[in-house]
Structure formats: C-alpha cells, structure tokens
Design goal:
alpha/beta, Aspartate Aminotransferase, domain 2, Aspartate Aminotransferase, domain 1, 2 domains, about 40% helix, about 15% strand
C-alpha cells in the first residue's frame, strides 16, 4: 500500500529527542521550546512565535486573544478543515461561511463584503492546500470595516504571497504540525504574530492564565495549550531541513504534473502568479463527464491497486453542526464543486519515482 503521507524524520529528530529525554525537561519547558519559537518566527517573517499543542488549539488561542465571544460572527471559507469553524464555535461565536474563488481555492475576497454584518468581528483566511489566500485584498476589506484577519496557515508553512512569507500578513497566523504536514512533530502547532501586546495576552492564555510575574497567580481564565519540549525537539530538527523538505516535496508535485499533463478530465490546483505554494498534498480534480468516472470511483480503483488517497474537505456549510435550513440555507457553488471532485494523491519526500509512475498510469488507464 502506498499511503497518502509519511513523515520525513531523516535528520536530527531522534538525536534531539534523546537530548530532551536526557535533560529530563520533557514537559512544557525546555531549551528546544525556546529554540523553536526563536527560529520559527523569523522563518515566517514574523516577530514572535508561540508553540502550542496542535493547530486547532492555535486557532482557538487566536480567537481568545482577539476577544471573540458569544454574539460575534467570523467569516470563514466553507472549503477547509473543520477545525477552522470549530475554533469559532469554541468561544461561542458563529462562523459565517463564504465561498472560495476558482483561481486560488481560497476565500473569495469579492464575496466578503456582502457577508459582513454588524456582528462580524473578523475573517479567517485559510491558505488552502498550501496556496496563500489573497491577503492584501482581504486586509483592505477588513481595515475598511474595522475587522481583524487571522491566517490559518496550517497547510502552508513557508508559502509566499507576493514575495512575503505567510504567517506575517495579518494580526495572527496559526500553524499545524500534524503527522502529515510539511513540517511535523506528530502533533503540534504554533501562533505567529508581531504585536507585543497580543503576544503577552496569547502567552498568558496558553499557560492556564498564569501571571508571568507572579507564580501560581491566575488573573484570567486560561487554557493548557502548551507544547512539550520533546515535540519541540522534533520541530527544531525539521526546521534545519525545511528547505530540503520543501524541495523534495516540490519534486513530487512536478513529477505528478508532468505525468498527468493533458490527461482527459484531470485538473490541477491553480497557482496565482503572485503565489509560491507550500507543497503539502498534491491535489487534482476529476471532471466525471470527461474522465468517464467520478472522483470516488477513481479513489476506489486506486485503493484496489494499493494506492491510498483522500477526498477534499467536505463543505462545512453542509455538515450537521453547521448546516443552515430553510431561508438561511447558503449556496456556495465553487465549494460544492471542488469538494465533490477534488482528491489528494500520496505526497511525501520518500515517494519513489516508480511509485509516482504507477499512480499516474493507474489514473490514465482508468479513464475511458
């Protein structure tokens, strides 16, 4: 079986983990945590970085830091992982779903203004499948309406928007280091930001609300969103090889696109002229009328032949916790089309050329 993802742990990961174990600092304090935060922030062209236990906690922390609460609304794309909307709900607010644009698959700036109400507090711009959202346009709309913007960069570390790294383009950015991500620690996440006041607030909330100058004194209700020193050790090793990891994954992307070029009914992720995407999972879309089979039929065929895949995210506006009924029902055609036709192919550094050729041959030969 060729899986969708295998983490790349071929550097100093084991060495650093053993160093953390030897030091006995295995919880939420230690040299590797400090090192990771100091190294990750500049990697994102940001002033500050905070390590957290996962990407969902990073989003939750961002909502708390920005004082989002009951009665508030936050605009989010419907085509994203469910954590984006869940984090809004965690603080008692309401996610308002906006369609994506075909040219980036990210939230459509042209639809944002019409979704804003007096209760809107901000916008979460998801850099979907490694491609940056059009943040300048989103920031302009936000500024004109006194809103904040959060970048959900869980899938897009080191991606670039008009020559600038994601993670530095808004009030707060969030990252995930889940086992299938470009940079991984198994579980883990981070928040990047450049405002020192927001940093101190986020740091306090992350650590149970403890006063940074008075031990065991808790002036606010906080959460335990902390990362372990062991996980940070893995991330420090990942950062050392970040450019190499990107290059190896990009080579996988390039080979897929070369071998599947002009395959009937097979489409690729669009890349804007101003974007440099982060090569997370290779995306393709299946036009059933032209290809002769649906996306799900192709996925079943690949699985029968030893190749795992995964479908695009299910539209959040159609999930039971978020589905609107009657007059409140929303129509998001681009989200629906992509969610029903998109799939991810195996993507990892150790994927062999022969395996990629096998996958592409299976896709081509299954077409009518």
């Amino acid at each position: 079986m060729i899986p969708v993802a295998i983490p790349d742990l071929g550097g100093n990961e084991e060495k650093y983990v053993l160093e953390a174990l030897s030091s006995t600092w295995i919880s939420s304090t230690g040299a590797f945590l400090d090192r990771f935060e100091q190294e990750f922030a500049p990697l994102c062209d940001s002033r500050f970085g905070l390590a957290v236990c996962n990407g969902t906690a990073a989003l939750h922390l961002a909502m708390l830091t920005l004082d989002v609460g009951p009665g508030d609304e936050v605009l989010v794309p419907s085509l994203t992982y469910v954590a984006t909307a869940n984090a809004v709900r965690y603080v008692g607010a309401t996610p308002v779903f906006v369609d994506v644009e075909p040219s980036t698959w990210c939230i459509d700036p042209s639809l944002i203004e019409s979704a804003i109400t007096p209760r809107t507090k901000g916008i979460i711009a998801v850099h979907l499948y490694g491609h940056p959202a059009d943040v300048d346009r989103i920031n302009q709309i936000a500024a004109a309406n006194d809103l904040w913007v959060v970048e959900d960069a869980a899938e897009a570390p080191l991606a670039e928007y008009k020559g600038r790294r994601v993670g530095s383009l808004s009030s707060i950015a969030t990252f995930s280091f889940f086992g299938n991500k470009v940079l991984t620690s198994g579980e883990g996440g981070a928040v990047t930001l450049s405002d020192e006041t927001l940093l101190q607030k986020a740091r306090t909330i992350r650590g149970q609300g403890v006063d940074p100058h008075r031990r065991y004194y808790f002036p606010v209700i906080g959460h335990n969103f902390r990362l372990t020193n062991i996980a940070a050790a893995i991330l420090c090793a990942q950062i050392e090889r970040a450019e190499t990891i990107l290059a190896q994954r990009q080579a996988v992307f390039d080979r897929y696109e070369s071998l599947l070029a002009n395959a009937p009914g097979i489409g690729f992720q669009p890349v804007a002229a101003w974007a440099k995407r982060s090569p997370w999972l290779f995306c393709l879309t299946v036009d059933a009328d032209t290809y002769g089979h649906t996306r799900d039929e192709l996925a079943a065929h690949l699985l029968e032949n030893g190749v795992d895949t995964r479908p695009f995210f299910y539209p959040l506006h159609k999930l039971p916790p978020y589905e609107a009924k009657g007059a409140n029902k929303v129509d998001l055609p681009n989200t629906d089309l992509l969610a029903g036709s998109g799939m991810n192919l195996p993507t990892y550094a150790s994927l062999e050329p022969a395996q990629i050729e096998k996958i592409c041959t299976l896709i081509r030969d299954f077409s009518r």
